[in-house]
Design goal:
4 helices, 3-stranded antiparallel sheet, 11% helix, 332 residues, alpha+beta
């Protein structure tokens, strides 16, 4: 494990620990706990309508159910960040973090290290709506991810196949309450696929469901693809299939995700950031989808639909510096 040069550290970051496993590399910031920001939800000031008829709202507090993938759904909009909010949100020099808890179950406050102060106004908008729309928020963690960096042409900010956040595979028995997640980016808004997904016949102990999502999107030639507006705050659930969008020119992008998971769903993956404003000590473990050794349900599908972005179409690792493999979601 290495530490970054202190001269490069953002204010409020004590050091950055660098670690790697299975070819992946993580920079984990260690935050200064002094001068924290404590956010408290004020649902009464939230003017956003809660659309009770939308599938994303209807599934709040429900237990994981694969059958819900048959119900097409779009994320729920919370509106677009104002120009003033966007100027703060996109301020350069943001600290990159993965799935850091900023709220614990049985607490109604959200704690941010001061290094993340530029995201407090956006998070306040999110939690005001969350506590207006969601009556059982006391049962959930909230995990924050921030990613800000340049995106090169013909690449994704965050490489991934079609997927969902909060998929409950074979490890989660009995099944848990479902994930719901808020996201926003200033540019290159995420692509969603509000279409039915049929997973009849797949076995969660054997098959990669994300590769099958690739295949079913490709079956439609991406006909159902939909994107929110730039800087639009949205709420999705764990059945909203989505994927990042390639840049067509050099682009500087700022992206935020706030995920709510029930108390059993502890995010203890090595590489996730630690929040010094809470008293907890989780044993962090190496965890990624490759170690599950899953296979494609349709082994005759296009090879690009059933490999990871960091693999060649034959499944072998890409050489260093090679372009990531993209799933062929369109016929032309």
């Amino acid at each position: 494990m290495e530490s970054a040069d202190e001269k490069t550290l953002a204010p409020g970051v004590l050091r950055v620990e660098r670690l790697s496993y299975r070819g992946k590399h993580y920079d984990v910031p260690i935050f200064d706990p002094s001068e924290p920001l404590v956010l408290r939800p004020e649902p009464a000031r939230c003017t956003v309508h809660v659309p009770a008829e939308e599938p994303v709202i209807r599934t709040l507090n429900s237990t994981w159910d694969l059958g819900q993938f048959l119900v097409p759904r779009r994320p729920v909009s919370l509106g677009v960040l104002s120009s003033e909010e966007l100027a703060v949100f996109t301020r350069p020099g943001a600290v990159r973090i993965l799935d850091m808890p900023i709220k614990f179950p049985d607490l109604a406050e959200y704690r941010l290290p001061r290094a993340l102060a530029q995201f407090a106004p956006t998070i306040q908008r999110i939690i005001d709506f969350e506590h207006k729309a969601h009556s059982r928020h006391g049962e959930y963690y909230a995990y924050l991810t921030i990613d800000q960096r340049p995106v090169q042409p013909n690449t994704l900010h965050r490489e991934a196949p079609c997927h969902v956040d909060g998929f409950q595979g074979a490890r989660w028995q009995p099944k848990c309450l479902t994930n719901h997640t808020y996201t926003v980016s200033d540019v290159l808004p995420t692509a969603y696929y509000p279409q039915p997904f049929d997973f009849s016949g797949l076995d969660e102990t054997k098959h990669d469901f994300f590769w099958e999502m690739n295949a079913q999107v490709a079956d439609t030639d991406e006909r159902f693809r939909w994107q929110p507006a730039p800087a639009e705050l949205t709420l999705m659930d764990c059945y909203c299939v989505h994927r990042g969008v390639e840049a067509d020119a050099p682009t500087f992008r700022t992206w935020l995700r706030l995920s709510f998971e029930e108390r059993r769903r502890v995010f203890d993956r090595l590489g996730n950031a630690h929040n010094p404003l809470f008293d907890y000590s989780w044993e962090m473990v190496e965890r990624d989808i490759e170690q599950l050794h899953l296979k494609a349900w349709r082994e005759d599908s296009d090879p690009s639909l059933r490999v990871f972005p960091w693999q060649q179409v034959d499944g072998q690792p890409l050489p260093p510096g090679a372009p990531k493999t993209k799933p062929k979601l369109r016929r032309s």
